Amino acid sequence: xxxxxxxxxxxxxxxxxxxxxxxxxxxxxxxxxxxxxxxxxxxxxxxxxxxxxxxxxxxxxxxxxxxxxxxxxxxxxxxxxxxxxxxxxxxxxxxxxxxxxxxxxxxxxxxxxxxxxxxxxxxxxxxxxxxxxxxxxxxxxxxxxxxxxxxxxxxxxxxxxxx
Amino acid sequence: xxxxxxxxxxxxxxxxxxxxxxxxxxxxxxxxxxxxxxxxxxxxxxxxxxxxxxxxxxxxxxxxxxxxxxxxxxxxxxxxxxxxxxxxxxxxxxxxxxxxx
Lengths: 163, 101
What we know:
By secondary structure, chain A is mainly α. Chain A has helices at residues 2-23, 27-47, 51-76, 89-110, 125-134, 137-159. Chain A is globular and about 55 Å long.
């Protein structure tokens, strides 16, 4: 019962924060809403006993990535978006496509088996590290290389003027 | 996991649809990148839920890799946004037409 109420609490916060990110006009406000959404998703990971992923979620997403977004927003010094009064055809089409996608996803995922499963209490840092450093050791090294390449690429792109 | 798997999947679908709507609606490139991050989060939620439900830890290792790729994507994407902003002085997606001429 506690798990269900926790799930509902975090799920409602996540959806409200996602909608707030969608409709807020200031990019900084959008970023703050997204940070709230990511923290509540971390809470959802905790309700699934995935403690390591929850901690990484807060550290990497809500910490590092969103601070990067906020830095860029403040670096560019953007003005607040003007209120859009006119609704074009692309807004209508986007809304219809989004609703169709939502209905499909909800229909497919709600039609599975609905009973709670028994298996729990895994997802600790020990269990993940055991897999990560034995079976997935090569992908782990490659992801380190990817991060290095991304760092170099970001520095090169941000400092050079291109035509 | 005491809550049914379906609930997590439905929540993940709703969050993914919000992200898609953000990509389709908004004209600010930074907000579009943030919507992509929200979609990645929705997929991560699905992976963790199914992983815990099946009792297979590999799904959470995959979530770890998705987070690393998302960090790389955010860094490179924001660097591209800064580079475009230097040239064009805008980040409105409908005013950036670099491929047109």
